[in-house]
TrEMBL record:
Record's keyword annotation contains Membrane: yes
TM segment ranges: 6-27, 48-68, 88-107
Protein name: Integral membrane protein
Source organism of this protein record: Hymenobacter amundsenii
Domain of life: Bacteria
Keywords: Membrane, Transmembrane, Transmembrane helix
């Protein structure tokens, strides 16, 4: 049996589903922060949010495609599961890292917008 095809057949769909789920969560919940950062300009916030979503998809799905290939010999279901756990675990860590990076960027942008608003209204 070709276990590589099994790994590929599970890895790619799992990675895409995880990426879409995290991206949609960030897209939906990040909008509030972006509207605040852009002082209520919903059109600008929505535009930036869509651009962030597109970039998120490109980076994560692109990385998943790059790491799809495996040259390790896979001779059993156990080795398939072990390889999948490493590959999917890596993607999950990257998605988590990007999530926290996005939160950090939103936090910094929001603080900067609040400081600007205080200075402007003073």
């Amino acid at each position: 049996m070709n276990f590589h095809l099994l790994v590929y057949g599970v890895y790619l769909p799992a990675t895409v589903v995880l990426t879409v789920w995290v991206a949609r969560t960030l897209f939906t919940n990040g909008r509030t922060f972006l509207v605040d950062i852009f002082h209520g300009n919903e059109a600008l916030a929505d535009s930036v949010n869509k651009l962030l979503l597109t970039g998120f998809y490109l980076i994560n799905i692109g990385y998943a495609m790059l790491t799809l290939r495996s040259t390790d010999p896979i001779g059993s279901y156990q080795q398939s599961v072990e390889l999948l756990s490493v590959k999917v675990g890596t993607i999950i860590l990257i998605l988590g890292g990007m999530h926290f990076f996005n939160l950090y960027v939103f936090y910094k942008l929001r603080n900067r917008a609040q400081q600007y608003a205080k200075a402007y209204h003073s």
